[in-house]
Design goal:
Blueprint lengths: L1 E5 L21 E7 L2 E6 L5 E6 L9 E6 L22 E6 L4 E6 L8 E7 L5 E9 L9 E9 L5 E3 L12 E4 L11 H6 L4 E6 L5 E5 L7 E2 L11 E6 L5 E9 L2 E8 L7 E2 L11 E8 L2 E9 L22 E10 L5 H4 E11 L13 E5 L3 E5 L2
Length: 383
């Protein structure tokens, strides 16, 4: 059953040089109840991308981080946040199921001129990571953009630049932080910013290779071995595991064909392809780690053959709730760092369906929310 949550006033997963998608216009965000939970529109009727589900159920409950397009936004205005004459990728926003803006930051707050790209919540609930783009040397009007990786602290909007060289808009960075320590070298500005020297981040370099930095060992990026037949910008969306030792990521052959992999953060490691079981609708795509108590899962999306991972369908419409587009699934896993490939990971139990609709933005730590948002934005509440 659909219900209207009225506003308070009455080819890759990222957003690269997009052809703007015109969705339906709405004055409110729709919510639809189903047997598997409640589907909420986010920025209803407007395009978004780079959905990243909340990692903080206390300060940002039932929310997600996302990137906007130009024009108007369908969320509640708040001080300093306008919803008209919006510039493309000019801010990062965290909003909830009621359309309330819980947090935002504008481009100029991180010293950038052109756009944000690839925002992602880190493994620490108080930090996010993104690309900040500015004019390349000699360029004007953002005709040629250079990107740096920035980490932003949500609690005070302070930021730090992580990349020591320019990256491109397909870098898709992710950040892992270890436990904070009272004993941090005050002369180490990176460790001081995060409150720990246990810092790792992963991204795709301009050559198309996945690289990682284990800051406690060296600030120099280390290259990971690529899957067979991977070239150019095929590798996408690496995400670091809760223990900081592995990543999951995609190899996007096209908008309709993909494979997903798990790989240890080690120069000597080899990628291990995530298997497709007989009951799955497709190879898994957009894998995310999900830690629930002592159990570790991988959450992923499946799409029906012939369906692109760029969703233009209305997931609040009951006609989409029959796996006709795809579904969201998960499976428990155990991983062992330093082990040979044949025993480095073990799947436990069967594949579990979370929802009969495809959602790509990860599952919240409490398990109650899953995000999605390319092209339409949604949050699924699971009771």
């Amino acid at each position: 059953m659909k219900k209207l949550a009225l506003l308070a006033f009455v080819f890759l997963a990222s957003c690269y040089s997009p052809e703007q998608y015109e969705g339906k216009m709405a004055s409110g965000n729709i919510a639809a109840d189903s047997e598997f939970g409640t589907v909420y529109e986010v920025n209803g009727g407007k395009q978004i991308c780079n959905p990243s589900v909340t990692m903080d159920a206390e300060r940002y409950p039932g929310a997600m981080l996302w990137l906007n397009f130009s024009g108007t936004l369908n969320v509640n205005e708040t001080e300093g946040f306008t919803t008209t004459k919006v510039g493309e990728h000019d801010r990062l926003t965290i909003s909830d199921t009621a359309g309330n803006v819980l947090w935002f930051i504008m481009l100029d707050s991180v010293g950038a001129e052109c756009e944000f790209q690839d925002p992602e919540w880190s493994t620490d609930s108080d930090y996010i990571v993104a690309l900040a783009g500015s004019n390349a040397k000699g360029s004007r009007g953002c005709d040629e953009v250079e990107y740096k990786i920035v980490a932003i602290r949500l609690s005070d909007k302070a930021f730090i630049t992580l990349s020591d060289s320019v990256v491109d808009e397909a870098a898709n960075p992710h950040l892992w932080l270890g436990e904070r320590s009272a004993k941090v070298d005050s002369t180490d500005k990176v460790a001081k910013f995060f409150g720990t020297s246990q810092i790792k981040f992963v991204y795709k370099n301009p050559a198309g290779s996945l690289v990682y930095v284990d800051y406690a060992k060296s600030p120099k990026p280390k290259k990971l071995k690529a899957p067979a037949n991977a070239s150019g910008n095929m590798l996408d969306s690496p995400l670091i595991s809760p223990d900081g030792n592995f990543i999951v990521y995609d190899k996007l052959n096209s908008s309709y064909s993909w494979n997903s992999y798990i790989q240890e953060l080690s120069e000597s490691s080899s990628p291990i392809e995530m298997e497709r079981t007989a009951d799955m609708l497709s190879n898994p795509v957009f894998p995310h780690w999900w830690q629930f108590g002592s159990k570790l899962f991988v959450v992923w999306t499946e799409f029906v053959d012939g369906n692109s991972y760029l969703n233009k369908s209305d997931l609040t419409n009951e006609s989409t709730w029959n796996r006709s587009l795809g579904r969201t699934s998960m499976r428990e896993i155990s991983v062992t760092a330093g082990a040979p490939n044949d025993v480095a990971l073990a799947w436990n139990g069967e594949v579990r369906e979370i929802a009969p609709i495809p959602l790509i933005g990860g599952r919240s730590p409490d398990g109650h929310f899953i995000a999605s948002g390319t092209n339409n934005g949604y949050l699924l509440y699971i009771p």
